[in-house]
Amino acid sequence: MNSTGNTNLFSKDAKFLLALHSSTANLGIGLIQIKNSKITFRSSTKKVGKDLSNYLFNYVEEVLPSGFWPQIERLAVAIGPGGFTGTRLTVTLARTLAQQLQCQVDGISSFELMAHRISKELIDQKSTKLFWITQELQRRGVIAGKYELLQNNNDPNKIKIKELKAPYLLPSKTTVTPAIEFSEDVSKDIKMLLNISLESHLHKKKSLWQDVLPIYPTSPVNDIK
User: Fold this and answer.
1) Which domains, ranges and CATH numbers included, belong to the chain?
2) pTM, whole model, 2 decimals?
3) Tens-digit pLDDT profile for residues 126-147
4) In this structure, are strands 179-181 and 104-108 parallel, antiparallel, or unpaired?
5) Is the model more confident about 126 or about 13?
6) Rounded to an integer, what distance in angstroms lies between the CA atom of residue 24 and that of residue 155?
């Protein structure tokens, strides 16, 4: 298990933003104290596989003890695409906490997190501002999401990503271009998830738990008309 960040961020009047990412075999948990003159950060990544259902609460408590859960002011969760069970567990936990605590919860696709992660590289390479992220699944087809780079002309370092098409299963024999193959980096993506959610918090964006649903592009239910 890898853990980073300041451990001296707990107090009775602290308010927290908690982020969860389990779309792959690696679980990511991130935490920041959002009412502090200096924002403090803590994160943890762990390879969990099929053990997630048994130990999810324990893993979260290692980052934020349950006694502080009522002080969560906002949540963020990666909604996939990814493993059915892993994604469902953290999305369900985030939705349940948001409902009980009556706080906002941001659902962000794992493809969008990757798009943010590689955005600076694409700008440096003067790549197209419109691109796809794809993931080929053995015997099941290709999942694809479409993204746009939005660069601030006054500050080139401020790059935003717009998800034009959330990840979905491409029709058979369909190709998209330019396309970048999906790659995992949960340790970086959990921090990006926190940053996106923090910006939403600072702008007082409403994100309701009812709207946060996992992405299952290859689910047979999606084929029912």
Assistant:
1) 2-109+184-223 (3.30.420.40), 111-181 (no CATH)
2) 0.90
3) 777 899 999 998 878 999 999 9
4) unpaired
5) 13
6) 34
